[in-house]
Specification:
Elements (H helix, E strand, L loop, with lengths): L1 H28 L16 H11 L9 H24 L12 H18 L1 H12 L16 H16 L8 H25 L7 H12 L8 H29 L2
Amino acid sequence: MDFLMSGLAACGACLFTNPLEVVKTRMQLQGELQSPGTYQRHYRNVFHAFITIAKVDGLAALQKGLAPALLYQFLMNGIRLGTYGLAEAGGYLNTAEGTISPSRSAAAGALAGVMGAYLGSPIYMVKTHLQAQAASEIAVGHQYKHRGMFQALTEIGQKHGLVGLWRGATGGLPRVVIGSSAQLCTFSSTKDLLTQWEGLMYRGILDALLQTARTEGIFGMYKGIGASYFRLGPHTILSLFFWDQLRILYYTYSK
């Protein structure tokens, strides 16, 4: 039940934050491996990207890739928050005094995050492909022309094999390790305190970093940071809030 509630909580947050994920994806793909000033900037900033996408692709385009986004959030956070919740409920994160141990909480958050992100990686890749698809006048990055999530997974599997579905999976793990451990450790520690008081362009992650820095400059590695920041805050708060409330409801009515 912990896994189900965790997945549903993340899906609830995703419904509100997916448009920011679309904007972030396109801003990051804009000018990929091109020197600054050598390409047309369709999206100048987060707000301009919102307006441009809505005007050219239509308002519905701001929710592109919603199906795989919801499935990814259900899988990733269902596993991540569910596993972490079981560890928390079992008392494995507590010190001898009964308070949350920051080191145990951080380690559990990191491990749970890696498990969820790696298993959900094929869905995340398809989500990115679909969110990047745009009208030719504002298209950025490679346009895969997928017709839907299942068709995309089938095509990738047939073309690159089962391993191809996890292409680039390890690239996002360092971010997940840091983000998940900090996020869940902070959430649990704060809650504990309040309770007392109340396309194969890269050969790997290192090659991707080096190529980006060489061709786009240091700032190229921070493209889309505005959209990412605006998405991450609400998504984190909503996910953890929904997760906590669903658990409260479940434990209240299951007694």
